[in-house]
């Protein structure tokens, strides 16, 4: 076994919590159960990693097997990575049968035609998710296994979740390989990012119950109160206002917990308004700006603004419809023919 492969396996084992090492090695299924029985999993992790490396040497492990172990680790600890959502587009509406073998072949061929020194590893999971790990090299250097890109693609959907390598220059190559392999025409980022991959899936697959506001604020239907004192009036008004805010918040955000989203942005276009006598603009050009939001838990932060007294209820649709705007952004730009930041299939 190559020395660099042995070191990579050792470091991967060291990342795993000690009480989970045996479970992950069993999922890896590269070492036999009899071999695993010889490992003392109660000693310090450095000694465990050395014993695992020795067993891998007996089985002549290569970098592809080591990469599979890394995929298993990242699948379990996927929240350690930052994920972005990308949406692909076909030229027509036709549905095609998805062939996994053909997808892998096209993906590898397209990527290796642009860059020879690259390690590509696939692993399928039960929810129709294909995990792809890509370690990047250069024309003169072997792939850096410690800075890979990760792709999660759900077949029969136009959505791809990418945790890019720090080597940003390789992102266009990755996107081109994806649209060629999946028979799409264009791909672009949806401006949604999060450490929680499952939350991003909930948003784009519409698996959570946010009620996007399409209503006008309802007038209060409270009964007339005969106040006995100023203090009682204040107490009643505070209680009624809290109940109203809670009701409006529930109508807007739903009952359940919000998906964990750390970053969102969308482009806003509106007309500049001024009085006729001012005549600020000679041409009625729209006012354009880029709106960015970031927070450890963005949607829950927005949900808590009104109850905390930091904003009026209901919140502006510009705040409550972030996920809906991100989903619709691709469709709107498609109608206008605007794709300057997308990757197009040749």
From TrEMBL:
GO terms for biological process: CENP-A containing chromatin assembly; chromosome segregation. It comes from the Eukaryota. This is Centromere protein N. InterPro entries: CENP-NAC/CAD_complex, Chl4/mis15/CENP-N. GO terms for cellular component: chromosome, centromeric region; nucleoplasm. PANTHER family: CENTROMERE PROTEIN N. It comes from Manacus vitellinus. It is found in: Chromosome, Centromere; Nucleus. Belongs to the CENP-N/CHL4 family. Its main location: nucleus. Keywords: Centromere, Chromosome, Nucleus.
